[in-house]
Design a protein that fits this description.
303 residues; alpha/beta; seven-stranded mixed sheet; 27% helix; elongated
């Protein structure tokens, strides 16, 4: 049986690693180093590390994968293939070229659409009507390698980045298990991606959560879902950031862009198009609450 080295870090990668572990020989798991998280800067292990520990798998957390030291580790492990799922670092040519069967990526989009770091957020933000997973053989480009297989799912317009990530992780895990045996046996040949329709997603930053009410309500509602669970959409109110977890586009256009009001006992903000009802929000230093609960203590909400 082929020996596989797995490289991944966040929750998205866990179902993929789990399915691989059930069916294939995992010689080691490579994941990012533990990182300080939150205001308290508590050191936290990547989700993949926690799973790998629970299964007794060998774990590597190199600070650098460029250079001779990591290649020597690969030589010792001698994997036939490397499977990558949201590892979080760009693989150098020395790693890409090492395994005889190549590096195989489980990418959370329908390539060539949404190459890059944040395909799930981008699909939601741009109002795509479908998403999916592509299994590809990696090259030196950004998700430009030839593809082996793909599967798609329709989007309902209710997905958050968190919920869609979970769905695509499970889809990707199943697709990978279906794809690898044929690829390893030589029955499945990689196909070059078309450049037509290629789009690129950028790494999401905290400031990407800032809501600009000069934009249309439909875009802002998608932005809120695309920023859930991180970085969480927000705007400034009463001198502090007010996080918005869920919103609804209204039929009315009673308020100008950025103007605040109350409709049906919920806080509302005007946009460039219709009004936006704030369903779930989180004031600074407080828990997530309904918009109605928020109004009980926000006497100066109205402009």
């Amino acid at each position: 049986m082929e020996k596989i080295l797995f490289m991944g870090s966040p929750e998205y990668a866990v179902p993929i690693l789990q399915k691989l572990h059930e069916r294939f020989n995992i010689v080691a798991v490579v994941t990012k180093p533990d990182q300080p998280v939150g205001r308290g800067k508590i050191i936290q292990a990547p989700a993949v590390k926690k799973f790998a520990e629970s299964r007794g798998l060998q774990i590597l957390q190199p600070a650098k994968i460029r250079g001779e030291e990591f290649i020597q580790e690969l030589s010792h492990l001698a994997p036939d293939a490397i499977v990558v799922a949201a590892y979080g670092k760009i693989l150098p040519k020395s790693v890409l070229d090492f395994p005889r069967l190549g590096c195989i990526n489980v990418h959370a989009s329908l390539l060539p659409r949404w190459r890059g770091a944040s395909p799930i957020n981008s699909a939601i933000l741009n109002g795509d009507d479908k998403s999916g997973v592509t299994i590809m053989v990696m090259d030196e480009g950004i998700d430009t390698g030839p593809t082996l297989n793909k599967t798609e799912m329709q989007l309902t317009g209710q997905e958050t980045t968190g919920s869609l990530t979970a769905d695509l992780a499970n889809l990707g895990a199943d697709l990978l298990i279906q794809t690898l045996p044929d690829y390893f046996a030589g029955r499945l040949k990689p196909k070059n991606q078309p450049e037509n329709g290629a789009t690129y997603s950028q790494l999401i930053k905290k400031e990407d959560g800032l809501l600009n009410f000069e934009k249309e309500a439909c875009y802002l509602e998608r932005q809120i879902r695309a920023c859930d669970p991180w970085p969480v959409a927000f705007f400034q109110w009463d001198g502090n950031p007010l996080r918005v977890w869920k919103a609804q586009v209204m039929d009315s256009h009673a308020f100008g862009p950025g103007r605040r009001g109350i409709v049906e006992r919920f806080p509302v903000v005007g946009t460039a198009s219709s009004d936006l009802k704030l369903i779930q929000i989180q004031p600074a230093g407080k828990r997530v609450m309904s918009g109605t609960e928020f109004l009980n203590g926000a006497r100066n909400w109205n402009n």
